[in-house]
Amino acid sequence: MKVPKEAERDELHAFARLGDIARISNFIAENPKRDIDEKDEHLRTALHLAAYANKRECVERLIGLGANVHCAARDGVQAIHFAAQKGLVAVVKSLVRHGANPRAKTSKNENCMHFAAKSGSLELVEYMKKKNVSCLLKSAKGKYASDMCANDDDGEIRKIIDALTKTQEEEEEKKKKKKKRNHEREGNDDDDKNVAEDDAVVLPEAVGPMLPPHLQQKKIDEEEDEKEEEEALKSDLNNKKKQKIEKAPIMGLSFGDDDE
Q1: Which of 81, 101, 119, 192 has the most CB atoms less than 10 A away?
Q2: Whole-model pTM above 0.90?
Q3: How do residues 62-95 score in pLDDT, each as one tens digit?
Q4: CA angle, corner 62, sides to 60 and 65, nearest 5?
Q5: CB within 8 A of 39, min separation 6: which ones?
Q6: Where do the domains of the chain lie, and which CATH numbers do they carry?
Q7: Can you tell me the distance from the alpha carbon of 126 to that of 109, in angstroms, rounded to the nearest whole number?
Q8: Complete DSSP assignment for 21-87
């Protein structure tokens, strides 16, 4: 009798909840075409459920079989968010080693720092600090990580988050000032360029090096004198040619008596 797909899917997810690596491996071997990232009615994969159930070895095995660490369930929640909600440091670190992003946001604009603070796990909050996960992210409900410390009995988590929030705010302020300076510098460069273009004097194309004014005038005078001498020479040559033509005899003509 053929098992319905829904039952196969539920079976895979059930094995993941239990952390039953052997049965998961057998299931995949017997169903090589099955998608390891098949989702249940809440869009959760087997990896989501293994992570939430604190089954680190099962998480490792599922990833080894090809499970996608970035796969999102409802509200954009990834396996790392599931683990962070429970304060499961070992599972979170395992997922990060395999490419999960601790700074990833859900569709409700929450990150792992929100979930770590809410979980009450000081160790996980310190790990998120090490990964520089933002405390400045405001969720869709208007909550920051510092607003999620209900399970912080001794106040240590809030102390870490408040200090990190201050540091990150200072870093953001520095980035804004640097960006503003760069923008102003670029604007000044454009202004200088415009002034240079507006005030530019268009000079005739220079031939050779530029001469000082008194030498430039001397050169102009010399050029004019040469031009006058050349015109005078041409005029003299033209006059000589004209005189020669007038004095020359008319060849090939005979005047008779009737012509005199």
Answers
A1: 81
A2: no
A3: 999 999 999 999 999 999 999 999 999 999 999 9
A4: 110
A5: 45, 73
A6: 1-101 (1.25.40.20), 102-176 (1.25.40.20)
A7: 21
A8: HHHHHHHHHH-TTS-TT---TTS--HHHHHHHTT-HHHHHHHHHTT--TT---GGG--HHHHHHHTT
